[in-house]
Amino acid sequence: MIDTESRRRTTSASLETLREVRAINSSFPYTSPIKAWKEQKKKVVAFQCTYVPEEIIHAAGLLPIRLTAESKDTALEEASGYMHVNTCSFVRACLDMVLRNQYDFLDGFVTCATCDCPRRLADVWKYYHYTPFVHVIDVPRKMSERAHEFYREQLREFKHSVERTFDVRITDDALREAIGLYNRTRALLREIYELRKAAKPPISGSEVLEVLNAGFKMPREQFNVLLEKLLLEARNSHRELEGKFRVMISGSPMNNPEFARIIEDLGGLVVIDELCTGVRYWWDPVTMDPDIDPITALSRRYLNNFPCPRMYPPDERFDDTLQLAKDYHVDGVVCEIVRYCVQFAHDQPLLRRRLQQEGLPVLELSIEYGTSGAGQIGTRIQAFLEMLEGKERQCN
Fold first, then answer.
1. What are phi and psi of 338, to 5 degrees?
2. What is the spatial distance between Cα 237 and Cα 202, in angstroms, rounded to a whole number?
3. Pairing mode, strands 332-338 and 245-251
4. Over the range 336-356, which residues count as b (16 or more CB within 10 Å of their CB) and which as e?
5. Could you give the 3-state DSSP secondary structure of residue 134?
6. Rounded mean pLDDT of 249-270?
7. Which domains does the chain have, with CATH numbers?
8. How many CB atoms are located within 10 Å of the residue 10 CB?
9. Is-contact 61 177, C-beta < 8 A?
């Protein structure tokens, strides 16, 4: 059994900035920053996929927020009346909140045709007129030159659609300013993630997910200020978080800090993730080149970013995931696959084989979105960590 004394990390004090983060998240989804924005008579547009360039929405003077659902057990009975139960529970959980009017402050919704589930969500959204603006961006599965040309035109049409609907003009200067702002976010998040390479990092995986959740529901200018405060505080703190084994989380869309906290409470140390709500959201910056128009720059970044499992061939994603595991000195990988998340489920056996070839043990969990089955998840994670401990003893 894992030593119970190692189950809790040693900390000298909590990071004060996290109190601000939790205050923002406590009013989810209509957070205080969004409320302040709406009180100024400004518009809010939700997006659901990392292939949606937020910069275009921001450059139009709108607030882009990420459409997510509550990380708790939800029956989804209402949503299941609109979408079949073999639709992934992440998308149905988002729809359930829309149906319960918890996103009634939205003025628009944009997603990508990256799989059938968000595409069908957009169909339901448009049919029932939940917001005046609904747009779907088609995303190629390859990163060839022809794919880039197609995706660039998709982004141009998205830009024109925003301009027509909201009666605004999105200038190249506004796009470049937005690109600089979002690149700053990516640089700050990279610095925060770099802190987690330490043997005893000052911030945990569950806390980082809390920070990202807050960032998805507030203006980017405010989020950057919050990240700067957090980074300065974490660097100057004497926090030292301990865990018996260093763990990576991989898998389906997840904004559930409780999932990471289960691992941490059992003695693991979540040091890195491979999630579209984590690393794959911010990983690569947009190239700032005065000779490249901003739409082309955005299309290059978003199509070439840390790949999603839908992209072909899959080797680039596998290589990037393995490199993360090496850089963060990972002992084991926990892969969570939301049921009916087809692309991740089909991709997972190939990723597992690559990880195991590198000597990395893998735990695969088929889960529902939220905290459903937390007790069973905890039991399996505990067994996984004990297996890592047994492996360590054999090596010694």
1. -65, 135
2. 7
3. parallel
4. bbbbbbebbbebbeebbebbe
5. strand
6. 93
7. 4-395 (3.40.50.11900)
8. 11
9. no
Alpha-carbon distance 86 to 68, whole Å? 19
Torsion of CA 93, 130, 29, 207, to 10 degrees: 50
Three-class SS of 295-340:
HHHHHHHHHHCCCCCCCCCCHHHHHHHHHHHHHCCCCEEEEEEECC
Q: What six digits make up the tokens of 101?
A: 């009017």
Dist. CA 358–CA 117, nearest whole Å: 33
- Token pair recorded at residue 274: 């491979």
Instruction: State the SS3 of 94-128.
Output: HHHHHHCCCCCCCCEEEEECCCHHHHHHHHHHHHC
Pairing of strands 63-66, 245-251: unpaired
The confidence score (pLDDT) of residue 176 equals 97
**HSE (CB half, 13 Å, CA atoms) of 249?**
32
Q: What percent of the chain has pLDDT over 90?
A: 82
Q: Which of 144-148, 152-156, 240-244, 391-395 has the lowest mean pLDDT?
A: 391-395
Site of tokens 């709108």: 62
Among 109, 111, 121, residue whose Cα is nearest residue 50: 111
Residues facing residue 266 across a β-bridge: none
